[in-house]
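Session log. Operator J.P. requested a structure for one protein chain; no other inputs attached. Running the standard single-chain path with token output.
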Amino acid sequence: MKLTQRLLIVLILGVTFLTGTSFDASAQQSIIRLDDKANFTDVWPTIEYETDSTVAVGVHDQRPYVIKGEKSPTYAGTVRGWVGNPWNVHTESNKPLSNDIAIAIVSGFMHVGKQAKTVTIPFSDDHQAALEKLKQLGTKKIVIVTLREWRIDIYRSQGFLIDAILRVYDREGNEIAQSAVSHKNIDSGDGTVESIYRAARLYLGMLLNDTKVKAVLASKPSIFANKENIPNKRFIASDNGTVIDKFTGLMWAAKDNGSGITWQEAKKYCESYHGGGYTDWRIPTQGELETLYDSQMEGMNGCSPNKFIELTTCSIWAMGLIDSNAYFRFDGGTRESTIRPFNSRPFRALPVRSGK
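Structure written below.
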């Protein structure tokens, strides 16, 4: 953490102590986000169809402030501190935001069994140049997502602003379908969301599952087209207390630790877990836990993601981007974090490992 950021935290905490001002949850969230970076690589969209075409995916960043040089291509949005002071948030990968989103879309196709390809498209390219680069990959179909806006804006609530167009081309470069999405057309239109990452996945899903796009890409429905059957087809439960997710390749413990523990205790619990005879268990990332949330059927087993994994609480400790202070809430699908002095919160641990 930078010195200026530490000083800001000390200053705010000092003012709180001297004035008796309450230190609410939203203020905590504003402070702990000082060092945050955004990771959109794992916001893979749920694609409701399989395709018999090979697909090239490109994301073309055409955000006006990036084109004008006012913001870096790694810029992901703005976070505002306790008193409204703003700072920029960039990609955790330190690569252009468009690269991260392209990786997420490719992952979406891979989750329905299709190997997709991608290539870096600089924001300085025009649309035709971007198309030509994707044509060189030699796939049957080409998908280009043009970003006119993609930005988080967080103060006391989470905001996700998007304005994007998806175009599908055949191998010769002829446009055959188009879809679009904008936060301005959703709910209140101000971009307020419960979770920026879940919103990103849903918006990408809207682009890719549009009726016109399905008509030119789909060969048959994927298991995600029938949400009631997802858990039964996606997860494999073993009698050794483990559950395999076929679409992420992850192996999960069949239940959490069962009692409230600190983050440090959760990490130790996961790393010492020997379920199924394996010794390489670890604490999951927020993104990994979120993939479970997206597969749940509403109302099933309370906060549990599906009938194969048992949770005794809705909040599960996770590995954060910067500090050991993150958790995921299954009662809303949100990634949360807390500052270290509050790590005694009684959340649970759910071990995970990379399945084979």
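Operator note: The chain has ten helices and 17 strands.
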